[in-house]
Structure formats: structure tokens, C-alpha cells
């Protein structure tokens, strides 16, 4: 694995905790970037992986879980909208990937979409479990109390790491 950075936003409140990893894209992404990112002229060089801690296991489809997923998705999008302009200001292509459907948030999506759980499984060697019609990450400590988020950039891993560290930490 390339560079690894974890952010713990608030250790006392589990609903405000997030892990952040900056890694190289998977082979699948590199081989298929023109189908995933049709407006890009070159390949991506980094993935920004968010693991947001949930207050409840996400392995069923009850109202409480749906509310928690909505809250975590909004939190991820807020974090993504902080990081994206930092990279874009330096002229790097950067996309936020919607965890709900794997589509790009601010650009036209390609004809194949991102599978966050599979990408994180491959990138971080994190297991996943199947629950009904979806896959859930199985975090070594949080179990299924984890919500994934992805961003992708053409900035190199070290550059993303340095820009985030300089502007957020």
C-alpha cells in the first residue's frame, strides 16, 4: 500500500469519526478509466478512500439504518467538497464518487460505475460481507458499522497527501 493517513475527527463521538486513506488506483480503474471517467484525458493516479464510522451496523434495511446512511453520505459529500477544491485549485482533475450509485458527482459518468466496496476491498485488503442485495465492508474493529466514500484524482499520491495535510490538518 502506498501512503496511508488516518484522520480521527472526534474520538469521543463515534458518529464524527472518519478514516482517510490515499492510495494508488486499482488495476481495474487504470484499465477502465476511460469508461469510468470519460471527460479525463489521462489516467488517475490516486484514490482517496473515506471510511466513515456509523453508530449502528449497516447490515439491515430498517428506517434507522437508512437515516444513518443518509447522514453518512451527506457527511462524506461535505468532506469531498472541502478536498476537491484544494486539488482543483492546483489544476488537478478530481472527482467525488457518489456512494449510493457509484456515479460521479460533478461530471458526466461513464457507462460503467465505481463499486466502492470492491475498490476498497482490493485497495485496503478489507473484507466484506453480503447482506441481501448489497455488499458491506467488514472493518477489523467497526465490523459493519462503516460507510465507504471514494474520490479519485490525477494528482500523485504524495501530492494529494501533502495538499490535504497542508490544508486540513
Could you explain the architecture of this structure?
The protein contains 4 helices and 6 strands, in the order βαβαβαβββα. The protein is of the alpha+beta class and about 170 residues long. Strand 4 (about 125-130) and strand 5 form a beta hairpin. The longest helix has 27 residues, at about 65-90. It is globular, with a radius of gyration of 15 Å. Residues about 1-10 have low confidence and may be disordered.
Bulk shape: globular
Assembly state here?
single chain
Arithmetic mean pLDDT: 90
Report the total helices.
4
Radius of gyration: 15 Å
Structural class: alpha+beta
Would you count the extended β strands for me? 6
Poorly predicted sequence stretches spanning 5 or more consecutive residues? 1-12
What share of residues is helical?
A: 25-40%
Distance between the termini: 22 Å
Strand percentage lies at: 15-25%
Q: What number of domains?
A: 1
Please give the order of strands in the largest beta sheet: 1-2-6-3
Largest sheet: 4 strands, antiparallel
Order of helices and strands: EHEHEHEEEH
Please give a handful of descriptors for the protein shown:
single chain, 169 residues, alpha+beta, four-stranded antiparallel beta sheet, two-stranded antiparallel sheet, 4 helices, 34% helix, disordered N terminus
Question: In summary, what is this structure?
Answer:
With 169 residues, the protein is α+β, with helices and mostly antiparallel strands.
